[in-house]
Amino acid sequence: MAKLDIIIPVYNERATIEELLQRVRDAAAPGFDKEIIVVDDGSTDGTGALLDSLQDRFGLILLRHDRNRGKGAAVRAALERAGGDAVLIQDADLEYDPADYARLLAAFGPGTPVVYGSRNLGAAGQGYALYTWGGRFLTFCLNLLFGAALTDINTCYKLFRADIIKGLGLAADGFEFCEEATAKTLRSGWAIKEVPVSYRPRKFAEGKKIRLRDGWRGFTTIVRQRFWKPPRRS
Question: Can you give the three-state secondary structure of the chain, one letter per residue?
Answer without folding.
Answer: CEEEEEEEEECCCCCCHHHHHHHHHHCCCCCEEEEEEEEEECCCCCHHHHHHHHHHHHCCEEEEECCCCCHHHHHHHHHHHCCCCEEEECCCCCCCCHHHHHHHHHHCECCECEEEEECCCCCCCCCCHHHHHHHHHHHHHHHHHHCCCCCCCCCCCEEEEHHHHHCCCCCCCCCCHHHHHHHHHHHCCCCCEEEECCCCCCCHHHCCCCCHHHHHHHHHHHHHHHHCCCCCCC
